C-alpha cells in the first residue's frame, strides 16, 4: 500500500506547490504587477493603479494635472535617472515631483516622476525602485 501511496501524495503536494507558486505575484507589497493590459511603456515593470497610491501621491498627481502650485522648490525639475531604473531617455525627458511624507521634516523619499510621453512613475524609496502608475 505504501508503495503507491507515497508517490501519489508526493505528486499531489508538488502539483499544489506548482499552482501556488505560479499564482503568486512578484510584488510583495500587494500592488499590481505588470499585465498585458498595461501600456507599452509600463510592460515589464511593477504597476499600481493611481487610485491605490497613498493619498499624498494622489494629491501630487492632481497638482501635476493642474499645473501647480507645487509646495517644494524642486517640484517639476529635471529627473536625470542616474539610477537607471527607468528607460533611458534624453536629458530633460523626465521630471520629478515630491510626494509629501507625513512626519518627515524634509522632502522624504517619495516621488512621482513623469515622462514627456505621458508616463507616470511612483517611488517610495528615493529612486531605488519604481512602479508604473496606471491612470484611467
Automatic annotation (TrEMBL):
Record's keyword annotation contains Hydrolase: yes
Keyword Hydrolase: yes
Signal peptide: 1-27
Molecular function in Gene Ontology: hydrolase activity; RNA binding; RNA endonuclease activity
Keywords, comma-separated and alphabetical: Hydrolase, Nuclease, Signal
Membrane-spanning segments: none
PROSITE patterns listed in its UniProt record: PROKAR_LIPOPROTEIN (PS51257)
Protein name, UniProt field: Guanyl-specific ribonuclease Sa
Protein species of origin: Streptomyces formicae
Lineage: Bacteria, Bacillati, Actinomycetota, Actinomycetes, Kitasatosporales
